[in-house]
Amino acid sequence: MAAGLIIFWVFAGLAVASAGLCITRANPVASALWLVVTLFSLAALFVLLDAQFLAVLQVLVYAGAIMVLFLFVIMLLNLGHPGPPDVKGPGGRVVGVLLGLALLLQLGVLAAATPPTQLQLAPGAMARASAEQGLVPAVARPLFDAYLVPFEITSVLLLAAIVGAVVLAKRRL
Amino acid sequence: MFLTPALIVSAVLFTLGVAGVLLRRNAIIIFMCVELMLNAVNLTFVALAERLGIAGQVFVFFVMAVAAAEAAVGLAIILAIYRHRGTVNLQNINLLKG
Questions:
Q1: pLDDT tens per residue across span B44-57
Q2: Fewest beta carbons less than 10 Å away: which of A58, A71, A145, A168?
Q3: B97: closest CA of chain A, how far (Å)
Q4: H helices present in A77-147, as ranges
Q5: What is the pTM of this model?
Q6: Minimal Cα distance from B72: which residue of A?
Q7: What number is the ipTM of this complex?
């Protein structure tokens, strides 16, 4: 199990380092590519957390579709070259770092909390469930059973997003 | 086994996303930081799903759908603003500042 923990921290460090590079690069293309590295490392963490189906979705939807959309817009607006630095001045920087530290402190306290024991499953229950039912059915069954209404509403949301994006981005209809 | 480490990593990633939103002025980079925050939350959901049942993974599915919709609409808005103002630097977009 120690090997799993080492792999976890390697990918966690990769995710945090590339996220830090993503928010500091002046060039938006470099920023987007570092974000892709973060998303891939998160997919690896999902595998370690017994969410293999979501890891595949993460690579396909986030690292694939959404990041291509970002890069497409960056290229379309011709923002590929580093312009003048867009990081805020010293005042904004101090406020941003202080607020970030405060948030990290709060989240750190929350991270140390553990869920109540009567709600917890037996250790390894998720891995066993996906071994019995299969990786995709373990996620798909609740999706089409207990969460059927939200799932259907998602389709309306996506339709609204498609129409909205076309209306916003088109020069004239 | 990975619950506490995963929550710590997710807290750090979320904070980096918030810091990016607060420190940058390029609208597209701010947008990427929002995606980073959504991903940090996804990691929390997946880490807790390992202990508390499959519902967390279903929520991640919904978060991904909402993020995809948000990316499409948000980028369309940025495109429209760029066409209108010729820049995506938020310092120059101050129509609502009065």
A1: 999 988 888 888 89
A2: A145
A3: 17
A4: 90-111, 125-133, 135-143
A5: 0.89
A6: A165
A7: 0.91
